[in-house]
Amino acid sequence: MDPMTIGMTAMAAVLILLALRVPIAFALAGVATVGTFLVYATRTGSFMPDRAINPTSSVLFSNFFDLVHSYDLSMVPLFVALGNIAFYAGITTRIYDAAAVWLRPLPGGVAMASVLGCGGFSAISGSSIACASTMGRICVPEMLRMGYDPRLATSSVAVGGTLGALIPPSVLFILYGIFTETSIARLFLAGILPGLLSLVGMLLVIAWWVGRNPAAAPRGEADGSSRRQAAIAAWPALLLFVVIIGGIYGGIFTATEAAAVSVVLTVAIGFAQRRLTLEVLWRAIRESLGQTAAIFLIAGAAKIFVSFVALTGVAGAVVGWVSDAQMSFALLMLFVVIIYIVLGMFLDPIGIMVLTLPFMVPLVEGYGLNLIWFGVIVVKLLEIGLITPPVGLNVFVVSNVVKNVSIDKIFSGVGRFLVVDAFVLLLLILFPVISLLIPGGW
């Protein structure tokens, strides 16, 4: 059996295992291990398993060891811890509190505040699913109590949660940077304008929705003193965002150093405001350890799988097929969009990224495209996948939090936001300057 056949069979096996709901880490690592063993065992033309044991073990352990000891990967536990500690310190929810007080008198104001709150939460936690889960518990019950249309109340949080994929710091950008060997700091900066553009698009959808149906979002009231108090209370979240983005953009910190400084600052603020105790801090650290272990396991399995794909030559063959087809830029991007949208309907974002990058990166490089720009496109597509039926993870997260609103109603509301997301994606593809203006390279 030649390496190409083994590689293609392995790809089919991974897709089948994922369809059967086998965890992505076990599917990738298991298939890659068996595939690597078969490649080495059949290299001489006959099956010789004794000659495959040592090289297979070397490939597995060296790739996992190199990844876990990567300096860039050290920012993952830091940013995960930052999000959890900031949540328990009450920092991540104060942007929503401030926005809700200020925007409550406007049509759809609380729904807009939910999106803004999700953006603020994402700017600190870097996790879309954690954002949807947390903000769903806070925002949706309040909107339903005010008489909001359940579709608007739930969908605004589900789509707002996707901002965690683009607005830095983003775990997806970190993993993309590690696997493509591109600057994570530049990726963070590249996500700012696309993230803000997506945010504005969501706010416009809410304004249009409420403009057509004012009954979908009754207005509330707020007094001047509560507005001032809410705005002042949001300062820790704004400070952390300035430290992360300002520090990286100003060249003061690397992304990893910015994460470390932000964690220390968050702990200090939490204890100073008496919102953190040693018991609560330990709870946040425990949760961070569990989440980090899951991410590391997936990333390690992906690294092994990438090595296996390179060994079989499948990635090079795919690039050759596309080159021979002489696809135009438009057809190439259409191909990329279709692949990610289809996979996004069934798989989680990290799984999609690690599964596709071994093939997509050589393809993009062959066309001479900017990998920073392509990273933004990929993350935007993964963001769309979080709310695309039939398996939009953010939709299911919100549905689990809000028991009295059916999934079909949430998807019905999300559909209106998907139109604007598609338009934003088109702008990002046609005008790379949107992504490359801040990090440079345009």
Outline of the structure:
This protein is an all-alpha fold and 442 residues long.
Uncertain residue segments: none
Main sheet characteristics = none
Number of H/I helices? 22
Strand content: under 5%
Radius of gyration: 23 Å
Backbone structural class: mainly alpha
Describe the structure.
With 442 residues, the protein is mostly helical. The chain has 22 helices and no strands. The relative contact order is 0.15. The chain is globular. Among the domains are: 1-69 and 297-312, no CATH class; 73-276, no CATH class. The mean pLDDT is 83.
Observed structural traits:
442 residues, mainly alpha, 22 helices, 76% helix, 0% strand, globular
Task: Compile the SSE list and pairings.
Blueprint: H1 3-19, H2 24-41, H3 53-68, H4 75-88, H5 94-103, H6 109-125, H7 128-146, H8 150-160, H9 171-180, H10 184-190, H11 192-212, H12 224-233, H13 235-249, H14 255-272, H15 278-312, H16 314-325, H17 329-344, H18 349-366, H19 371-385, H20 393-401, H21 407-430, H22 433-436
